[in-house]
Structures are given as structure tokens and as C-alpha cells.
Amino acid sequence: GQQLNQSPQSMFIQEGEDVSMNCTSSSIFNTWLWYKQDPGEGPVLLIALYKAGELTSNGRLTAQFGITRKDSFLNISASIPSDVGIYFCAGRSGGSNYKLTFGKGTLLTVNP
Amino acid sequence: SAVISQKPSRDICQRGTSLTIQCQVDSQVTMMFWYRQQPGQSLTLIATANQGSEATYESGFVIDKFPISRPNLTFSTLTVSNMSPEDSSIYLCSVGLGLKGDTQYFGPGTRLTVL
Q: In the predicted model, is pLDDT for residue A1 greater than 60?
């Protein structure tokens, strides 16, 4: 089946630093989604991408849908302590298949 | 987006028993999904539960173990049957919204511990 490779697995950064994480796929996706999950909570949607090449921002977060449709990245600028959490990418291949395939997550720790 | 609630938020159950998890949405949605998230792991789709049709299960998940109901456009239940410690996980429902229904929003999850 489809697999998503998400990297890095974890990151330890200082408050104020920028962060970048990415996902790559062995197959094409038509939709890329980025989520953040806090402990004991469900994933919260951060950014949704629907077109190859699309670049979308949400506050300090910026995500891009790769031109090849096989990759996406998420950048966080000027990190703050509340950015701590697990970030997941998810992709949908399209058509009548609405199934999301999730990456394994990036654990972000921000040192104040 | 949508406001999604789940009940219970957590439970501790004995081996061999069953637990039914409820998912309620504040608006009518066609597509609902149930996921499992094992400790420290990513999310795995159990089944798609569209109103008016039988749930569609992913490989490795069967209806006898995870029966699902979808009686209307705002509600669904997932039952974890004949539980074993390996079923200890977070169970999450999600809904598909947007023009193409391909943007999924998640509930807060149900944390299940099986002793």
C-alpha cells in the first residue's frame, strides 16, 4: 500500500528558531494535509493543500504541495513553546477513495 | 470545520468485554471515519462509515471485531468487541468536509485501556 515517509522523527529547538519538516510518498497524492496533535487530544488540522505547487500559510506556518505531487513540507517560523507537539502529514490519493494515509509524525520540542 | 465530540473520553475495560464509542457532529456530514492510534504510533484507518451504506473496513479490521453503526448524518458508533490488551489505543472519529469532502477533521479521541 501507500507509504509516507515523514522526517525528521523528532526535533529539539530553541524558542525563536525556524522549523522545517517534510513528507515524501512513493505514489502521487491529490491532497496533502498537515495536523498537530497535543497529548491526550485529537489531531487538529493546520493546513490543507489541494494543488501541485500550492503554497499556503496559516500564521507562522507555511506548507507547500510539491510539484511532483509526491511530497510536501511544513515550515514553522519563530517557534514558541506552544508549538510543542506531534506534527503529522497525511495524503489522499484522490478519486472516490477518501482514505488518508498518515506519516509517522514529527515530535517537536521547543526549549524556552 | 465541524465540532466533533466523542464519548467516553477514556475508559478502562476488562479483557473479553466490549465498549461502544459514540461520535457526534454538530452538522450533517456524509463521510465519517474511524481511526485507531496505538501508543506512540500514527493513525490507522479502521473503516469508512457513510450514512446509508455498510461500513467499509480496511485490511486487518473486520466487522465482527469492530461493528459500526451510522444511523444518521450526525452520529456514528464504533464498538470494540471481545477486547484484549492489544486493543488498548486511542480511537478517533473524523468527518470529511470541503468541496470534495477530502478535508478531514478529528474528534478528541477515546483513550481505551484494556486490562
A: no
Quick check: A25 pLDDT over 90? yes
Burial A70-107 (b: 16+ CB within 10 A, else e): bbbbbebeebeeebbbbbbbbbbbeeeebbbbbbbbbb
End-to-end CA distance of chain B: 36
Over residues B79-93, mean pLDDT: 97
In whole angstroms, what is the distance from residue A41 CA to residue B52 CA?
30
B82 vs chain A: nearest CA distance in angstroms?
Answer: 25
Q: What is the pLDDT of residue A2?
A: 65
Which cell numbers hold the place of B42? 500514527
Residue A63 three-state SS: strand
B104 at A interface, C-beta within 8 A: yes
